[in-house]
Design brief:
This protein has about 475 residues and is mostly helical. It has 2 domains: about 260 residues, Ankyrin repeat-containing domain (Serine Threonine Protein Phosphatase 5, Tetratricopeptide repeat); about 110 residues, no CATH class. About 50% of the residues lie in helices and about 5% in strands. The chain is built from 21 helices and 6 strands. The strands form 3 sheets. Strands 1-2 form a two-stranded antiparallel ribbon. Strand 3 and strand 4 form a beta hairpin. Helix 3 runs parallel beside helix 5, helix 5 runs antiparallel to helix 6 and helix 7 runs antiparallel to helix 8. It is elongated, with a radius of gyration of 34 Å. It starts with about 30 loop residues before the first helix and ends in a 9-residue tail after the last helix. Bound molecules: zinc ion (2 copies). The site of one zinc ion has 5 residues, from loops.
């Protein structure tokens, strides 16, 4: 795969990037190509309008002036070239168009100019790479989103080896690009000519975050798919020594098989969690406390102060039971799909309206996309794979309450924990106090055995 990796611009002829524009004075701008590459509009105009240089012919390497302008996102120059005879769909020796070059650095402004002037969004080069593939190979997530949302580029298109943009993003480890593609319903189970899924490539290359995103959004099927050599993603990861990924994948496999085991048993342990067990334990403990510590006839009668503490403990226990029920049953802050006020689901592309060029809003926020819920979630929220929802202000999924702890039940959870702890301390204190005061009574000529015999005459039969 690495050998077929795209090499859009030969490195020796690659112009300096925009950060190095300060030194343009020293760079010789000798023709329309260098003028386009470095964004020297005045010189370009001079070459075209005074010297009559053509814009429809390529340079010595078969590259067009429009490609150079597209690579470095000079949209005004691109428009000028198109207006003065440049062909938007002209291809170089690799069959690449200016749009391919725009995808390399994610030049959205130029892409708009090209596509609005009739550039073919699905133009494929010699390897079958379309603009979507190039964008995925270079991790240009915003660019990819732009051409998919606005120009309906096919995001699942295969290249000549059957690899989709998702394969490439997984191979290169661009997890944000993966999030976007999954958000847009890219097919995770797609196998290339070698039988590899995107997860195979991510596992092979040791891209931890990419694997994590794919596993969380995926199903059991992707974990078990074998490539043509018979390897699962887990096998590839362990063979290559990517231990963290191997652990992640085997854990995911085990979680899935456990669920399968549950189904055989007819139960859904994973979803129900331990909440019913904890609920019963709390009730049993409260009854036991009342029965065997407070009201037991075995020990001396409770004094007023100890009794008060005891019943405070019992009330707190019942209170924590109520809080426990609230934690379990309350919506922890599920984020719903945005619905319009008139009740109809918003069918408009949610990513279309976001100002993607505005870096302060968008940069680094691709992990706000949930590939499973198909929503753009607020910061500090996370998807819970057990609850199958995105949770606002996600803290953690607590198996003991069989629910997530999030925005709406975090205070209930906190109060529950505090009450539970306090109840335990009071209970322990009262119990110890009761036994402590009982010891002088017991030790006055009696042993535990006598006590047992006195109060449980049936058991005394064993002693005769
Ligand atoms: Zn989600
Ligand atoms: Zn959860």
């Amino acid at each position: 795969m690495a050998s077929s990796e795209i090499e859009v611009v030969p490195s020796e002829s690659e112009p300096k990037t925009t950060q190095q524009q300060n030194s343009t004075q020293q760079i010789a701008i000798i023709d329309v190509f260098s003028a386009s590459a470095y964004g020297d509009f005045d010189k370009l105009r001079k070459f075209v309008e005074e010297d009559g240089a053509p814009l429809a012919t390529p340079d010595g390497n078969s590259y067009y002036a429009l490609q150079w302008a597209a690579l470095n996102n000079f949209s005004d120059i691109a428009q000028y070239i198109i207006d003065h005879g440049g062909n938007v769909n002209a291809t170089d020796n690799n069959q690449q168009t200016a749009l391919h070059w725009a995808a390399v650095k994610g030049s959205i402004a130029v892409a708009d100019v090209l596509l609005q002037n009739g550039a073919r969004v699905e133009a494929a080069d010699l390897n079958g790479y379309r603009a979507v593939h190039i964008a995925a190979q270079y991790g240009q997530t915003a660019f990819l989103n732009h051409i998919v949302a606005k120009y309906h580029a096919e995001y699942d298109a295969p290249d000549n080896c059957g690899r989709s943009p998702l394969h490439w993003a997984a191979f290169k480890g661009f997890s944000d690009t993966i999030r976007l593609l999954l958000f847009r319903d890219a097919f995770q189970g797609k196998q290339d000519i070698e039988g590899c899924t995107p997860l195979h490539w991510a596992a092979l290359r040791g891209n931890v975050e990419a694997c994590m995103v794919l596993v969380h959004a995926g199903t059991k099927q992707e974990l078990l798919v074998k490539d043509k050599a018979g390897n699962t993603p887990l096998k590839l990861a362990s063979d290559k020594g990517h231990r963290q990924i191997a652990r992640l994948l085997s854990k995911a496999e085990r979680a899935n098989s456990k669920r399968l085991f549950d189904k055989i048993l007819g139960g859904k342990m994973g979803e129900v969690g331990y909440a019913p067990i904890l609920f019963c334990v709390i009730i049993v403990l409260i009854i036991l406390f009342i029965n065997s510590v407070l009201a037991t006839p075995t020990l001396p009668k409770v004094t007023a102060i100890v009794g008060l503490w005891g019943w405070i403990g019992v009330s707190l226990g019942i209170g924590s039971l109520i809080m426990f029920y609230r934690c379990c049953s309350k919506d922890p802050g599920y984020i719903k799909k945005s619905r319009r006020s008139d009740g109809y689901e918003d069918t408009e592309d949610p990513l279309l309206n976001i100002e993607l060029n505005n870096a302060s809003v968008w940069t680094g926020n691709w992990d706000q996309l949930c590939p499973t819920c198909k929503i753009i979630r607020p910061v500090r929220s996370k998807h819970c794979p057990i609850c199958k929802h995105c949770i606002e202000q996600f803290d953690h999924h607590c198996p003991w309450i069989s629910n997530c702890v999030g925005k709406r039940n975090k205070w209930d959870f906190f109060v529950f924990i505090c009450m539970g702890t306090l109840t335990s301390f009071i209970g322990a204190f009262v119990a110890v106090q009761r036994i402590w005061t009982a010891i002088p009574v017991l030790s006055a000529g009696k042993t535990w055995i006598h006590l047992v015999i006195d109060h449980h005459p049936d058991s005394s039969e064993y002693h005769h």
